[in-house]
Design brief:
The chain is of the alpha+beta class. The protein has one domain. The chain is 13% helix and 30% strand. The chain has one helix and eight strands. The protein has a four-stranded antiparallel beta sheet. A hairpin with a 6-residue loop joins strand 7 and strand 8.
Length: 118
């Protein structure tokens, strides 16, 4: 990521944050394409979603971007989404089944996220 300008509380220059593989199924990989970039203003977080069903949360995006370790945890969100997939398939899935996400967006200003998955 790159920021041209900065106010005293912000940052400028470039930052590199490497995606981490989240072991939510056998096809999990940090190299799957991005299908969603969603910014939540009141929490100052960016949610990066990959086609493998993983969600990656960058906290403090406007002041000091880093991977979230707080209450909005990347792995926890990914596991929750995976649980929704498993339930939608009547619990007839195993770790070999990937919950492929084809699109994701914010629904409202209360951090509600909707997605389409196969």
């Amino acid at each position: 990521m790159f920021s041209f300008l900065s106010d005293p509380a912000g940052w400028s220059g470039s930052r590199v944050l490497f995606l981490r593989n989240q072991k939510i199924h056998k096809s999990s990989s940090a190299f799957h394409p991005v299908v969603g970039l969603n910014y939540i203003l009141h929490q100052d977080i960016l949610i990066v979603t990959l086609t493998d069903g993983s969600f990656h949360v960058v906290q403090n995006i406007s002041s000091d971007p880093s991977w979230s370790g707080g209450h909005v945890n990347s792995y926890q969100i990914s596991k929750t989404v995976r649980s929704a997939f498993v339930e939608s398939q009547n619990f007839d899935v195993d770790l070999a089944d990937m919950n492929k996400i084809t699109g994701v967006c914010l629904f409202d200003d209360r951090s509600t996220v909707i997605w389409a998955q196969e």
